[in-house]
Design goal:
The chain has helices at 19-30, 52-59, 99-102, 115-128, 145-151, 153-162, 199-205, 212-224, 242-256, 276-285, 314-331; strands at residues 8-11, 34-37, 62-66, 75-76, 80-83, 87-88, 109-112, 134-137, 167-173, 190-196, 229-236, 266-271, 299-301, 309-311, 336-340. By secondary structure, it is an alpha/beta fold. The chain has a single domain, classed as Alpha-Beta Horseshoe (pyruvate-formate lyase- activating enzyme), CATH 3.80.30. The strands form three sheets. The protein has an eight-stranded mixed β-sheet. It has a five-stranded mixed β-sheet with strand order 2-1-3-7-6, with helices on one face. A two-stranded antiparallel sheet has the order 13-14. A hairpin with a 7-residue loop joins strand 13 (299-301) and strand 14 (309-311). The chain is globular, with a radius of gyration of 20 Å.
Length: 341
């Protein structure tokens, strides 16, 4: 899969007050990309497309270069204490993604140029929690690796935490474009995780992302570069033959990682869930999706901000949890399973 190149770029004038903003404008100009000015991402109008579906798809290939104004970080349990906001939005087309609703009518990708402000806020959180380690998740609102070959914001963030005393960085990706990150001075303080899944899930629900083999190629590279490595299996989905499908996943994973130092390897397990608003948006944007979202087959679970979600019934969730733990124990007996949710 080729690295992401936006079809259209918007730049907020305030972004040009920062070195990164000026660098990106110069870079995109040299690339011959169409560049427009916008006072704020909220003022963007006129995303091309003959209908709402086309506009949505075009928005997913639109990049907004702007300033992060809200510097209060969200929490990011159970992955980390805080979500560090480097970007918002994703170029992938994963049918199940919760960004379908959290980004609402603004599915374009935004990158933030005021990194020093963001780093200063991260330092405040670390200082408040001394002497505890504070973990920051960089992939809550985007797949940051997917755009970092253009922005290098993630690379700068990796090196910021590499020099920190009590901070650690984490992120997850479905993209394999990691070469520019291999020489970053991470000092072992950034955990690089890849999202993996059964062949059925990747084929049917993850268009616009790197293939499974490409992700494993990226995982080998970052492991050899000394990054702590992890994998997120998400969403764990009960498709026909799911037991065999997930067994094959771990079998392929173990073969691909032969010769790699797997000390400290982690897994995170997340079952498929959806909300009613997400279901409406997904069915509208991906009308032919095979994604099963039958509320009658699920258990309702209260979520943050009073928005409930539908997860698998308790017995089925336990079956998923126990089965995947068994597979991981067989193929990766030294690995840590951080959680199942």
């Amino acid at each position: 899969m080729e690295p992401f190149i936006p079809q259209l770029v918007y730049i907020e004038p305030q972004a040009l007050e920062y070195p990164i903003g000026r660098e990106l404008k110069e870079k995109f100009t040299k690339m011959g990309l169409e560049i427009r000015e916008t006072t704020s991402h909220n003022q963007i109008r006129g995303i091309p497309g003959d209908n709402e579906l086309q506009q949505y798809r075009n928005a997913k290939s639109t990049l907004v270069v702007g300033v992060r104004r809200t510097l209060k970080f969200d929490t990011s349990k159970p992955s980390a204490e805080y979500a560090i906001p480097l970007a918002t939005g994703c170029m992938g087309h994963c049918h199940y993604c919760y960004l379908q609703t959290t980004l609402g009518s603004k599915p374009y990708i935004r990158t933030y140029v005021n990194l020093d402000d963001i780093f200063a806020q991260a330092q405040k959180y670390m200082d408040e929690r001394k002497p505890e380690i504070t973990r920051f998740e960089a992939a809550c609102t985007s797949d940051i690796v997917g755009i970092d070959h253009l922005t290098h914001s993630l690379k700068k963030t990796i090196e910021f935490f590499g020099q920190s005393e009590l901070g650690k960085l984490r992120f997850v990706t479905k993209f394999h474009h990691v070469d520019h990150l291999l020489d970053a001075k991470h000092n072992g303080k950034t955990r690089f995780r890849f999202s993996v899944n059964s062949r059925y899930v990747i084929k049917n629900f993850e268009p616009g992302t790197s293939s499974f083999d490409e992700r494993l190629e990226g995982a080998r590279k970052v492991a050899h570069a000394g990054y702590p490595l992890g994998f997120i299996v998400a969403p764990i989905y009960m498709h026909e033959g799911w037991q065999e499908g997930y067994y094959e996943l771990f079998d392929r994973l173990s073969h691909a990682l032969q010769g790699v130092d797997l000390k400290g390897l982690t897994f995170e397990l997340i079952q498929h869930r959806f909300t009613k608003p997400a279901k409406r948006v997904i069915e509208k944007r991906y009308p032919k999706t095979k994604l099963e979202m039958d509320e009658e087959k699920r258990k309702y679970k209260w979520g943050r901000y009073g928005i409930g979600k539908y997860v698998y019934p308790t017995a089925e969730a336990q079956d998923l949890d126990q089965t995947l733990r068994q597979y991981i124990g067989s193929f990766f007996p030294e690995a840590e399973i951080e959680y199942f949710t």
